[in-house]
Design goal:
about 260 residues, alpha/beta, Rossmann fold, seven-stranded parallel sheet
Amino acid sequence: MTPQALTGKRAVVTGASQGIGQATAIALARAGANVAGVYRAGAPEEELREAERTLAGIRAAGREGILLEGDVADPAAVERLAQAAEDAWGGIDVWVNNAARLVVRPFFETTDEHWAQVLGTNLMGYVYGCRSAARRMAAAGGGRIVNVTSAAYLQPIADLSAYCTAKGAVAALTKVLAVELAPLGIAVNAVAPGATDTPINARAYTPQVRRNYEQRIALGRIASPDEIADAIVFLCTDAARYVTGHELLVEGGLLINGNVGHARD
């Protein structure tokens, strides 16, 4: 991907205050885009500091940045974000749905409230984002939408029923919208990260979990957010101009590794 491949583009990233969203917002800016983002309402002080770092990273790349507080499970909050980008820059060329919530509990202990929280953020937030973006992109003649899914729904993990359900639904949404929106010049793709070092995973990744991943992942290590962000940016550039309805796995070979330690002849 050439530097400044997105010069003059206008991008939106949800969940932009930390992890993959933060890395993506800054990577888009380094590629030349102005970037608007949203971080969760009621975020703790540490996350607010990270939000400031996101803005600083965008501006250090020489681009304009907007960061709003809001809950992507609220369609009005998503629409406010889209309108803020449109008011500032005249339109939206790129939209990345990334905001996520993780609940790690056995199915029988996953309450209705848990389901509502996870699906509200990880599924309906993506629906609202796609809708707000697509309406503006259709009027302008095209654009790029990237939805962040997960390798976890393709290789299911126990105790993640709500999370995996949401991510699988987003993959289906991506494919349907790719077909439906293609005549409007809008490409819709997904990136499915594998194990990635992000704040959302910090508690779940115990030392034993980390060792297990390092043994299972063909490349032998957990991904950094920057490595996922680079794949997202690729799908937003002209290098991916003939790609739509695709889910790009960025998981270091986790899913292809079937090694169980067979004895050799």
